[in-house]
Amino acid sequence: MKQRLLTGVAIIAALILVFFSRTLTLYVFDAFIGIIAILASLEFSRLLTRTGYYNFAVIIGIFPTLFYVAFMLCTHFKLPLYLTMVIIVAIALVLMLGLFLYSLIFKKRTLNEMNLRGVKTSLSTYSFQKAVQTLFGMFYPSFFLMLLVILNRCEELTYIFTKASGFNGTLSFFILLLAFLIPIITDTFAYLMGSVIKGKKLCPNISPNKTISGAIGGVVWTVIVTAVLYLIFDTIGAYNTMFTSLHLEIWHIIILSVVASVACQCGDIFESFLKRKAGVKDAGNLLPGHGGVLDRVDSHIFNAVIIFAFFLIFLL
């Protein structure tokens, strides 16, 4: 318990420092998200392998870097967002095709691998499945988490986010605060409410400790906390101006909170499903008392997509 508490304090301290660093440079936050994406991706790759979904771990691990390089090059040439996304997805698809061909070309090596793993399918089927499973690992969690890098720079990218100019960092700070805070609130209050109220299990075959009361409590308290947070920020001149300019009202935040909180819990359940299938308690052991990086960010992954899509509506 003491180790878990110390690790938790260290994580919170790191988050505060990273958020503070944004006043000096955006690259520290970019690097922070990139490192998280790489570590979580490698842990996810190992989970897939343990469940029999073989993949190219190295490619999954380097994809966040490829995403970042492609994104920065696209912004340098001021390419529209849709084209940037198309290019990044195309890179992933080309890699998948290349890996499929690699497995076929190096037939002897692939067959040896199949024999060691006791795979009875054909060479082409195994090669294709391995390439597709690697593609899956490139999107979850890498692609989803790296969307936070785009949000980190939304106020720089006014040629994309046409309504994001003139806020002096308040917009991106508020967006990223929600991206990190909503999963934390959801997880915390789902645990607390579930422990106090108990009741019927949410998904006993996947995560026996989760309850329906906890799931509902997580959503309700997320709505309450984010609504209060909005009201507090609304009293600050710069944020009030931002909310007014974007026509961002409290009911928008309430809707976002409900959808995002549900997404957070889906992310948590999805990882629990993978861990149960892999026969492991944690995705890794990098964070003493907390398991792996993926165990800490499983709720953030789907939330990042929801936050990105939500603010895209207001900023384009």
Automatic annotation (TrEMBL):
<comment type="pathway">
    <text>Lipid metabolism.</text>
</comment>
<dbReference type="GO" id="GO:0005886">
    <property type="term" value="C:plasma membrane"/>
</dbReference>
<comment type="pathway">
    <text>Phospholipid metabolism; CDP-diacylglycerol biosynthesis; CDP-diacylglycerol from sn-glycerol 3-phosphate: step 3/3.</text>
</comment>
<protein>
    <recommendedName>
        <fullName>Phosphatidate cytidylyltransferase</fullName>
        <ecNumber>2.7.7.41</ecNumber>
    </recommendedName>
</protein>
<comment type="similarity">
    <text>Belongs to the CDS family.</text>
</comment>
<dbReference type="GO" id="GO:0016024">
    <property type="term" value="P:CDP-diacylglycerol biosynthetic process"/>
</dbReference>
<keyword id="KW-0443">Lipid metabolism</keyword>
<feature type="transmembrane region" description="Helical">
    <location>
        <begin position="79"/>
        <end position="106"/>
    </location>
</feature>
<keyword id="KW-1003">Cell membrane</keyword>
<keyword id="KW-1133">Transmembrane helix</keyword>
<dbReference type="GO" id="GO:0004605">
    <property type="term" value="F:phosphatidate cytidylyltransferase activity"/>
</dbReference>
<keyword id="KW-0472">Membrane</keyword>
<feature type="transmembrane region" description="Helical">
    <location>
        <begin position="253"/>
        <end position="274"/>
    </location>
</feature>
<dbReference type="Pfam" id="PF01148">
    <property type="entry name" value="CTP_transf_1"/>
</dbReference>
<feature type="transmembrane region" description="Helical">
    <location>
        <begin position="127"/>
        <end position="151"/>
    </location>
</feature>
<keyword id="KW-1208">Phospholipid metabolism</keyword>
<keyword id="KW-0548">Nucleotidyltransferase</keyword>
<keyword id="KW-0444">Lipid biosynthesis</keyword>
<keyword id="KW-0812">Transmembrane</keyword>
<feature type="transmembrane region" description="Helical">
    <location>
        <begin position="27"/>
        <end position="45"/>
    </location>
</feature>
<keyword id="KW-0808">Transferase</keyword>
<feature type="transmembrane region" description="Helical">
    <location>
        <begin position="212"/>
        <end position="233"/>
    </location>
</feature>
<feature type="transmembrane region" description="Helical">
    <location>
        <begin position="297"/>
        <end position="315"/>
    </location>
</feature>
<keyword id="KW-0594">Phospholipid biosynthesis</keyword>
<dbReference type="InterPro" id="IPR000374">
    <property type="entry name" value="PC_trans"/>
</dbReference>
<feature type="transmembrane region" description="Helical">
    <location>
        <begin position="52"/>
        <end position="73"/>
    </location>
</feature>
<feature type="transmembrane region" description="Helical">
    <location>
        <begin position="5"/>
        <end position="21"/>
    </location>
</feature>
<feature type="transmembrane region" description="Helical">
    <location>
        <begin position="171"/>
        <end position="192"/>
    </location>
</feature>
